[in-house]
Model the fold of this input.
Amino acid sequence: MKKGLLTWALLLCCTFGAKAQLEGANWFFGDSVLLKFTEDSIIVSQAQLSTEEGSSTISDKEGNLLFYSNSGFVYNSLHEPIHEDPIFAGGYDPENPGQGNGFMDWVLLLPAPINLDTLFYLFTLDTTLSYTLIDRRLRDGTGGILDSAINVLIGDTLISLDTKLTSVRHGNGRDWWIFMRTSWSADPPIMFLRWLLTPSGFEGPDYLELTDWVEEEGWYYGNMFFSQDGERLIVIEKTGFEVYEFDRCSGEIEQIGVIDDLPVTGLWYGALSASGQKLYVVYHNIIEGSLERHSGILQYDLGFLPDSYAVKESESLVFEEDYNNYGIWSIKYEPITDNMYFTLLNTTDTLYSHNMYLHAITEPELTGLLCNVQENYLQLATEPGGMRTLGGLPNMPNYALGALAGSPCDTLNETNSVAEVTSPPFKGYPNPVQDHLHIDNPLPTTCQAVVYNAMGQEVERFDLDPGGQAHATGWWPVGFYSLVLQQPDGTLDKISLIKME
Done:
């Protein structure tokens, strides 16, 4: 079938059977490591950024690198920074830019629901969740950030947030659900914060309170992520994990399992296999006053849910190392190669040889040791001192996840008989708009036009003449708008717009 030990080269030739999902084909992480996954090869090259843990990368549909970030800086495909001053973000020290971000999930790149190929959001943690808007058309097409959209806060600064940030496509295949988790010190206690990113802007945050969760005290542990199909949400905490079913149409969650009181002192990060059945969790078993210090990977079978006890009993130790020498840090599933990748760090010397490799689980759907853990699977460098892992792997959703076919929210698919789809006769362009918006009106009658901002406040109203017209928009503040057009029979149509400087 697949997959032998890979040795370092600019082109590493292997054969993988999985279908490519190319928007996530590139990974930036660690000390200037940049990988490109294709259906028959992995290309190792050098980025111009470094980060201890937090990073994110985004590519186009053909797998061409677009942008990568360590939260403080964004670099383009030419490996050039697209801005001069660092973006303020929690976990990022501007006085030590080579360190990058010290929290694995505190940076996330998403394509905008509108102008997918040109506009992108960089999410980071300031005093709450914030975004910076990237426009690929700026700086002669090499990309830049909009001065009016840097560190825009979209959350409640009074609520303490955990280090967990993740996202998944809405069931319409266009919008994005964004989830965060409150920290152990928050008041009220543990709950989810949920946003929906649409062409009109952000909806939320909505607060989803919980009745049961893994009790947590102390520093931030674990991560949070969706299954590849978006139907499950997993939360890893220090002493256990929670499993939720997720509705991509409504954004609602339903808890189906809490697995805690595990026989280790601290869970670290987790990842799911493609089917969503096999969960892999990294642990650090460090007992105070004892020399017995271990780091390992546990496998759980979520196919036993909703029986949490059976899931707990399915636990299998698939890999373990002596933490006094080196520890396992992060783990992430990669769909093109259908492998699970993880990092190993020497606990006393960051230049240790294990940092120069990426390690893998090559059969993640198989039970127990059949999953085939391979140390030193992919060589990143030939000597210590460069292109090495520093702990984290990139925070990236399944960019290629499409619409929930046949569901009521699959409203953008004209072949879906379940959804009520209409084709509005009006068109507005260019979008994003600057000084003038051209509106086409193919109807022989005058229509009423009303403009609303992202807060739902009316900005202006005017008559749209038959045939259409150009409308001045230069005085609109930068932001998201909805243009609502009413036909003589009362039919309403909406065009979502972005106003730029």
